[in-house]
Amino acid sequence: MSDSIFKVIFLVGFVVGFIIRGVFVFWIQFNRRSKQNIIIVDRKTGLDKLLLFYSSMGFIVIPLFYLLSPRLDFADYHLPTWAGWAAGLVGTAVFAMALLLLWRSHADLGRNWLPTLQIREEQSLVTKGVFHYIRHPMYTAHLLWGIAQALLLQNWIAGFAMLVTILPLYLVRIPREEKMMLEHFGEEYRLYMNRTGRVIPLLWR
């Protein structure tokens, strides 16, 4: 019973997450002036595209395939009732935090957000809102999403698919993104790095 409830909760959160991304993508494209669309730094590569495709398998294709088809049921595991409810409730809370952080990250970035390793003309360094504490809150949001997926879907493949597929992307992309930002914003970004966490807030500073 709890399995079915938390599958529904995951599916609802999944849809909400894509609505958040879709709304901001539409808003940014609608409001962006032509001058702001001029790309002055472009570091995206074939590897980036490959890793993005690989990660999309883990947080889009595999969980949806699991929810809409019985083909992956062989990898289900069943926790004791109390443990299943505990994992599901924690997963629900983590998913809510992930969606809130995803929304707040988009809102704070505004027109500065780009889905790839690029910098536009007149792009500014955002250090307000959640970026005051974390340099990559969207990545943090997706890591929380992956943890929630593992807690809500009691399946060895679908549950852990996002964490398995998204970590390689982050291990490759975050250092390259920070190098690009250092080269473009210089000392301003270096100072920003010194007072913030990469994906976990430096609350003691």
List the helices and strands and how they pair.
Blueprint: H1 2-31, E1 39-42, H2 46-68, H3 81-109, E2 118-120, H4 137-152, H5 161-185, H6 187-195
Antiparallel strand pairs: 1-2
Helix pairs in contact: 1-3, 2-5, 3-4, 4-5
Account of the 3D structure:
With 205 residues, the protein is mostly helical. The protein has a single domain, classed as Four Helix Bundle (Hemerythrin (Met), subunit A), CATH 1.20.120. The chain has helices at 2-31, 46-68, 81-109, 137-152, 161-185, 187-195, and strands at residues 39-42, 118-120. Helix 1 runs parallel beside helix 3, helix 2 runs antiparallel to helix 5 and helix 3 (81-109) packs antiparallel against helix 4 (137-152). The model has no long low-confidence stretch (mean pLDDT 89).
Keywords:
single chain, mainly alpha, Four Helix Bundle (Hemerythrin (Met), subunit A), two-stranded antiparallel sheet, 6 helices
The CATH class designation is Mainly Alpha
User: Could you say which structural class the secondary elements and strand pairing correspond to?
Assistant: mainly alpha
Strand percentage: under 5%
State the helical fraction. Answer: 55-70%
Q: SSE order in H/E notation? A: HEHHEHHH
Instruction: Give the biggest beta sheet.
Output: 2 strands, antiparallel
Structure summary, number of beta strands: 2
Provide the gyration radius in Å: 18 Å
Number of helices: 6
| Unreliable residue stretches | none
Whole-number tally of structural domains: 1
Taking all residues together, what is the mean pLDDT?
89
